[in-house]
Structures are given as structure tokens and as C-alpha cells.
# Entry
Amino acid sequence: MEGMLSITEEEIKRYYELNKLQKEVKQEMDHLKKKFHDILDASYGKEKKGEVQRGNYKLQRQIRVSTSYDDAIAVKKLDEMNLKDFIIVTRTTDKEKLESAFKLGLVEEDEFKDCKVTKLIPSITVKETFSSAP
# Structure
């Protein structure tokens, strides 16, 4: 273990402090963003482009448009119009039903071992602890 990389208390403390700072910065940015949108809404109208220049800084609001279709309604209409080529059929595993079948003994779990994908997602958390030692 001597050749292993080490983690110092200072590094853990810095990570903790930066994580805390990140949350505070995000909260402040969200507050300012809401204020800016409210002011631009009042000045230019909701969902309208606008800008404000103060000193060397220019604040701009752009409006991006994203279009999608409600799949349930669109697929029903396409079916009614006999436009089945416009519908993509996606075949996926019903995980809940398959796992229930394993539990009930209807399907052998071993048969699906080569199909099972497990993802491990590493996560780091740091909490400040206090000891009674000086």
C-alpha cells in the first residue's frame, strides 16, 4: 500500500468546501436568472427575445424552439390514416414482468444471465465530521 496514491484531509476538506460552494453558487444563479427573466418578461413580453446592457456587460435572452409530438395522439392519428410506415415500433424488455416471472419460477433466471447489464455509478460524498480530539 506504500506505493498507492494517498488522499489527504486537506483534499477531502477542499472537496467538501467546493461542493458546498457549488450549491450556493447554483442557488444564487437560479435566483438571478429568475430575476432577469421576470424583468425581461415585463420589458419585452413573455417568450420574447430581449437584452439589457449595463456597463461592459450585455444580458441577452434568446428563445429556442423545440418541437415534439405527443406519441400517443400522433400514433393513433397515423393508425387512423393508415400511415403505419410513419410509426416506429420499439421492442423492449418488460423488466418488471421478467423479474416477476423469475420469482414465480415461470422463467429460469440463468437463461438471461448473458442478457443482464448492470451499471455501477461511482459517487463521492463528503460530510463534515467533528471529533472531540483537539
Summary: Strands lie at 50-54, 57-61. The chain has three helices and two strands. Residues 9-44 form the longest helix (36 residues). The chain has two domains: 7-66, 68-108.
